[in-house]
Amino acid sequence: MKKIGIISSFDVLCGNATYANAIVEGVSKKIDVMKIPISRSIQKRKNEKAIKEVIESAKSCDAINIQLELTLFGATPRLAVKFIKRILKSNKKKSITIHRIEPQPENIIKSIYQNIKSYGISCIFKTILQNHIKSIIYKSYKEIIITASKDNTIFIVHTKRESNRIKEICEKAKVIIHPILWPEDYEHDKKVSIKNIFKNK
């Protein structure tokens, strides 16, 4: 039986961890699934020992799925990107589930102008800071998407919006839209078999 590794933060009470746990529970009836948890120590600082444990677990699987939420993979976006790239190199068959992609931020001058009209001149510093943070997050996801696409990684998203955002970054990216809920009348790619083996609770 093929072994699939699901990489997420299983021990943290968050939407990503809850979703990943539900997937493992559902698909484990049909395939061998290995939970590969991201240690909280990786989220707070660079813990090389914990990182290597994740890499070795990923290598032992026939395929891996990364439940991607940037903050789960490193104390900073830069560390998270480096870690994810190492995971991608660890296995030939991989997919990345992205629950939400931060859009490219608006031009900073435009953002400042619009916010001054709404909130006054006192919002300038806050607007600059928010734009800077959004830009870093966007560039981090962009780097991951481009790197993964070059290596034939499949992206799984829940909405057409997220699919479009990936395609804007990399037109040739392989993207599957798979909703969190599976209504019977939903038109979907018949190649996706998760619907038949996963029961949403």
Mind explaining what this structure looks like?
The protein is an alpha/beta fold and about 200 residues long. It is about 50% helix and about 15% strand. It is built from 8 helices and 6 strands, in the order E-H-E-H-H-E-H-E-H-H-E-H-E-H. Strands 2-1-3-4-5-6 form a 6-stranded parallel beta sheet, sandwiched between helices. The radius of gyration is 18 Å and the shape is globular.
Helix-strand string: EHEHHEHEHHEHEH
Biggest beta sheet summary? 6 strands, parallel
Number of helices: 8
Q: How would you write the strand order of the largest sheet?
A: 2-1-3-4-5-6
For the record, give the distance between the C-alpha atoms at the N and C termini, rounded to a whole number. Answer: 26 Å
What radius of gyration results from the CA coordinates?
A: 18 Å
Strand tally: 6
Share in β-strands:
15-25%
Q: Which ranges are low-confidence, i.e. pLDDT below 50, for 5 or more consecutive residues?
A: 182-186, 188-201
What is the helix fraction of residues, given as a range?
40-55%
Structural class: alpha/beta
Mean pLDDT: 84
Globally, the shape reads globular
